[in-house]
Predict the 3D structure of the following.
Amino acid sequence: MIINETEIKEARVLEVGKQMMLAAKTAPKGKGLDQLELILVSGEDLLVLADYMDKSVERHGRKFFYRDAINVRQAQAIVVLGTRLKNMGLNCGYCGFPTCEAKEAQGQLPCAFPLNDLGIAIGSACAMAADFRVDSRVMFSAGIAAMELGWLGAECKAAYAILLSATGKNPFFDRQSTRPEK
């Protein structure tokens, strides 16, 4: 039997994406409370996400979403990690208030621990991609777009996306800057 790499690449990237979700899910979490939402995006849904990112520039003016949407179209799959921002009740002070009660009295400032947990999960997922030698790039732009599309559920309040590629050159680096030249 002869197998050409082009025949297995997409399936392998999807398998790595699944491994990444497992790595993120089992990453340590404050108080052992899992507030993560994880999805794997591929196929035509990558185009849905990229098109949404392009259209959202008119709404918020962040032109780098155009550049990032190009990368979404180049990805073979994307793992999106999001979190709910439920108060952990630790009175840790990371949010700037001495107690969780004092913070809640002032409004909706998020608890720091779910965001920390999200960061740890992203690191675990990226390490898994590296272990399998799949190129990756973390993007908050694609995470925001996936969240706004409702793909992570209504309670998800913060999200990042990890774009995946198994090509001869990582398409997620050496990108054109969208910053004005000085």
Summary: Residues 49 and 178 are 20 Å apart (CA to CA). The chain has six helices and four strands.
